[in-house]
Amino acid sequence: MPARVFARPLELFPGKKISQGDIQNELQLLGYRRVSSPHGQGEFSASKKKINVYTRGYLFVDGREKPQKLNLRFDNDGLRSLENLDTGTQVPLVRLEPLEIAKIFPAHNEDRILVRLGEVPPFLIKALLTAEDRRFYQHHGVDPRGIARAFIANLKAMRIRQGASTLTQQLVKNLFLSNERTWWRKMNELIMALLLEYHYEKDEILEAYLNEVFLGQDNQRAIHGFGLAAEYYFDAPLNELRPDQLAMLVGMVKGPSYYDPRRHPKRAIKRRNVVISSMARLGLIDDAQKRRLSTAKLDVKPRRSLSRSRYPDFMDLVRQQLKKSYDEKDLRSEGLRIFTTLDPLLQEKSQSVLKNGIARLEKQKKLPIGKLQGAVIVLDIRSGEVQAVVGGRDRRKSGYNRAVQANRPIGSLVKPVVYLDALEKGWTLASPLKDEPVVWKDRNNKVWKPQNYDKVFHGETPLIKALVHSYNAATVWLGRKLGPSSIAKHLYEMGLDRPVSTYPSLLLGAVEMSPYEVSQVYQTMANDGFRIKPRVIRSVATKENQPLQRYELKIGRVIQPEPAYLIKFALTEVVRTGTARWATRVLPGLMPLAGKTGTTSDYRDSWFSGFGENTLTVVWLGRDDNKPTGLTGASGALRIWSDLMKSIPLLPVDLTPPEKIEWFWVNLESGRITDKNCPGAIPLPFVAGTALVEREDCRQSGQRSWKEKLFEGWLH
Amino acid sequence: MKNNILLCLVIFCLYGVVSCTTTTVTDESATDVGSVTPPKTGPKDQYPTTKPTVGASAMQLLELARQQAESGQGELAAATLERAIKIEPENPWLWHRLAVLRMQQKKWPLAIELANRSIALAKGNKRLIGGNWLVISLALEGAGNYEAAKRAKKNSDVYLGKSNQE
Question: So what's the pLDDT on residue A306?
């Protein structure tokens, strides 16, 4: 059996920031049917600010989530309450079943959704026995009457035209024998059927049959068993199918290809109605039922190949992680259940926002159509869980996962790491840096003269301003004092699991990283200096639901609380007043948010890595042929990031400081402490005891007004 | 070693009881699960001292985790506490509980880091910070680092002492 891979189960509780639309989307992804009033499991109804849903329940490793009828009510902040409609009580917490996102198949493409006899709809059993073996509970594996009838028919035709196989014989044939029609095979089948009946109970044989019978072909994969067939043809669990749908599946046993409801719907209906009529003749259903069932539409779902993952980019990371612990063979054959961290709602949104955003940028900026590519990674900051991975605007076309495989220069995304290094070494956000022409010879005597984006040098400038406006010269001036090797060390500690070269150009981001690697480094900054081992899998269980392995939350502090706070604050200023100001226009109600833009030489790469309190998202745009895109981090990736943030439950960054932080009003021009009422003064956090005591009076400073400041230092 | 186990149990019970009853304790400001606190920037005096509580949803999981831990299913209990943390990621009490569990499992370095995480989120809650320093102290002792354990214990005493004077 293949390994089955699941998304995270959606947890519902009062106060959860989730929209009604998102819950409806999740229910639809899970195959719940929208009805006017839910009566059966897997059904829901929705009206304004209200959803009624009959959940299916699920057997989790830590216990069973029972099916229940729930009333969900919403307000503007999200889910307000959950009430059990049967008991009238408030429910504090509900877990929906996890969406199956992929299967990892064995070489011979065997697959099953095992069903237990007790859980199978009785109608299915009645229909099956009516159509295939009416004397199943009477015979001993072989039905002599049937054999006699077929024998005579075959003798008359002088060849084998008719079979009289009991369910037991069919099971034997499916399990052990070939499909050829010879007397020798038939004899084997008879003997083995008798032996099977001798050793097993009728119900055991029937259950095995229900799970084994061949019911179709999905590319290389055979559809065996009614459980899998229900999913393959109706995208629903077997116990949620209507009687007419069950009858259709039973009808298909005779010839799954000939009666394929997708290719030959008329034949499938005709055959289904034969089954229904037979049941009516035996008195198992009445005439009214017969008429109703015979006129029902097939309602077969459009074909969706189950052997292909819904989210292949995310699955790349899952496979990478699984390979470290599991044999390829076990993965493909042991029927493992793999519970991942994927959030299908975020994944779907990330995919569509990236696709539409790139198309819009191409149009707006008059870029060549179809050349621009992109990638998105979404992380849950506190748990380190990877929630969404998008490896390109249309994965199906190329199969190239840019989010994980594309290593590109990160440009100014490296700057917060440089400034963090300085803050750890005692610099403050107000420390003066020199933004002036700089010439640096590296170890190979190569001369390097970094320029600012606006081609202007700004002279002495406070540290935070240099970061907020992404001044290159000031960063290099600072980085020379700190040493590139110190920056490389930080990158490593913060999440880049490989060494990088320590050329001076590292200070301006001449280090190549994938969006996934960038997300790890930024996760540490977003998480107050705590690095968390990234997780794409929560746990693995056996097919019997026994826990095998858990990927626990592993955490470690790599930045002290105070510098971690200062850099986080500075990154919120990047969004509030710096190169990422665009986001404040799009997301005014969510401030403060934090992040950094990145642009590389000749506009080849456009980056934005940004976060709120709960979610970190990295967006990269560029071309596969590495030609210029014409986009900066702010004019490209930031736009897509902002659009995505609009549609997800993002929380503002919490800027509550740690203990040893104190605040002063600072003149950003001079970097000196000043008066609250002076124009342009902003409150800056300092590690206690590090702020300069020298104060200035705004009347002497001759600085520009806040309005003038607001429009300085635009994009890069 | 016996002392360690005793202390672990004391901490677990002390904070377990505290956090399990917070929904009915009135002197602590109740925080709605998932509610958004408007962000504040500015000088320190704008920030109130946070006193976290546990909402009903996470509470249900805390209780489940307790049962799982008591029946020897430590890893399931950890998974359940992680679920609770997903519901209230900013709640330092939940991180503290996970730190205590890891300490009971003798996962010393992880217990220390989780306690540190709780401290970072505790923001002024001296009782909780003191409790976390105690976890750190015990974990350091468990790892054989007795000098550092002593220093951590001192820290714990300072915070818990201050807490008692409140």
Answer: 55
Residue A2: the pLDDT is 80
Mark yes or no for CB contact B44/A657 under 8 Å.
yes
CA angle, A454 as apex, A449 and A458 as ends, to 5°?
75
Entry pTM? 0.81
Q: Does A652 reach chain B within 8 Å, measured CB to CB?
A: yes
| Chain A contact present for B80, CB below 8 A | yes
Q: B116 to chain A: which residues are within 8 Å by CB?
A: 530, 557
- What tokens appear for A135 in the block? 């004397």
Tell me which CATH code domain B2-22+52-165 carries: 1.25.40.10
Under DSSP, the state recorded for A511 is -
Contact criterion met (CB below 8 Å) for A58 and A9: yes
pLDDT tens-digit profile of B36-90? 233 344 333 333 334 447 899 999 999 999 999 999 999 999 999 999 999 999 9
Q: For chain A, list the domains and their CATH numbers.
A: 3-98 (3.30.2060.10), 117-294 (1.10.3810.10), 661-710 (no CATH)
In B, minimum Cα distance to A547 occurs at B76
Q: How far is CA A460 from CA A171, A463, A478, A670, B3, in A?
A: 84, 9, 12, 8, 59
A631: closest CA among A586, A600, A610, A609? Answer: A600
Residue B2 sits at the chain A interface (C-beta within 8 Å): no
Q: Which residues of A carry out catalysis?
A: 132, 412
Residues of chain A with pLDDT under 50: 702-716
pLDDT for A711: 42
Cβ pair A488, A506 in contact under 8 A: yes
> The tokens of A538 are what?
């929560």
Could you give the CA distance from residue B154 to residue B134 in angstroms, rounded to a whole number?
A: 9
Q: Are A679 and A703 in contact (CB under 8 A)?
A: yes
The DSSP annotation for A578-597 comes to STTTHHHHH-GGG---EEEE
Torsion (CA) A170, A171, A175, A179 in degrees, nearest 10: 10
Backbone angles phi and psi of A555, in degrees to 5: -135, 150
Distance CA B22, CA B11 (A): 16
Q: How many helices (H) and strands (E) are present in chain A, helices listed first?
A: 25, 32
Chain A residues closer than 8 Å to B32 by CB: 15
The predicted structure's pLDDT at residue A22: 97
Chain A interface includes B94 (CB < 8 A): no
**Does residue B12 carry a pLDDT above 50?**
no
pLDDT of amino acid B37: 32
Of A470, A504, A467, A472, the C-alpha closest to A485 is A504
Return the domain boundaries, chain B. Answer: 2-22+52-165
Judge whether A440 and A476 are in contact, CB under 8 Å: yes
Contact list, A654 vs chain B (CB under 8 Å):
37, 39, 90
Long-range contacts of B118-123 (CB under 8 A, 24+ apart): B118/B92, B118/B93, B119/B92, B120/A528, B120/A529, B120/A530, B120/A561, B120/A658, B120/B92, B121/B52, B121/B90, B121/B91, B121/B92, B121/B95, B122/B50, B122/B52, B122/B92, B123/A656, B123/A658, B123/B47, B123/B49, B123/B50, B123/B92
The answer on pLDDT for B4 being more than 60 is no
């099953």: which residue's tokens?
A112
Cα distances (angstroms) measured from residue A251 to each of A285, A287, A578: 16, 19, 67
pLDDT of residue B28: 28
